Fold:
Amino acid sequence: MTSSAIDTVRAMYEAISAGDMAAVAARLSPDVRVTQTRELPWGGEYEGLASFAQFSRTLREHIASSVYVDQVFEAGED
Structure:
């Protein structure tokens, strides 16, 4: 993993921790896809950035969570 890839991972976790889903979405592919079991209140198929935003809003309506990252390290290309 390059330092820019590590920086991207760190930036994503920082944005998630801050609840800044716009910053998260800015780093995602326009064709992002999230699949969650329909047994969850936020479950379903979410495809595209607008749909990801809806997923994020729905998820936050149902759970409160936090992310703590102890360290990020290079794992290789495999």
Observations:
- The longest strand covers residues 33-36.
- The beta strands are 33-36, 44-47.
- The mean pLDDT is 88.
